[in-house]
Amino acid sequence: MLAAAGVSSRRRAEELIKAGRVTVNGAVVTLGARVDPARDVVAVDGKPVHLPARRTIMLNKPAGIITSCKDPHAADTVMTLAPAIPGLHPVGRLDKNTTGLLLLTNDGDLTFALTHPRHVVEKTYRAWVRGIPGNDALHKLRQGIVLEDGPTAPAQARRILTRADRTQVEITIHEGRKRQVRRMLEAVEASVISLSRVRLGPLILGDLPEGQWRDLTDDELTALYKAAGLPAGK
Fold first, then answer.
1. For residue 216, which of 4, 151, 220, 228 is within the disulfide window of CB 3.0 to 4.6 Å?
2. Burial of 160 (C-beta count, 10 Å sphere; 0-12/13-18/19+)
3. Positions of the chain with pLDDT under 50
């Protein structure tokens, strides 16, 4: 709760609890204590902590924008495109030149669940590549590719469109390594021209304009909590 309220990071919150500085209804708590924000009064050093309303949005990230809350080396981050919501942060990353569906939330539990390896949340990308990847290249992607940081899990891969000297390929993975899709395509000699994420778990980017955002619908939130292994009414 402390992380979600913007009081501290998750690790710092643990330190505050261990130091005996966090109380619930006036009693000092220990790690693992359960809290109901609707009924319990949580305080740090005697000052009440108010949990902001949970908010989760979908952003269509443009190319050239860094996926970070702050970056001293970048003029623009995704936060310059997002609304001013306390505690809002990106869930996972899209690299600077990758566009498409990016989730932002102030729900720390949701972020943790979606990025934890035990939850298989599929991510679908569409890439324009040079040339026409053959069936052998697609087969290798489907079997898993050996990268410098180890083999990938099998992916779903198919050709979507072919135009002259380029092809649009769709790839679905459930891992989250740095530049993974680009590296997988490069490994089968498919040079990437552009890359966009079009789906994250049950969420579909659809026709959301580039650089714009929208709140998730109630049905989308329910499906997302389910995919993350969280109660729908959390």
1. 220
2. exposed
3. none
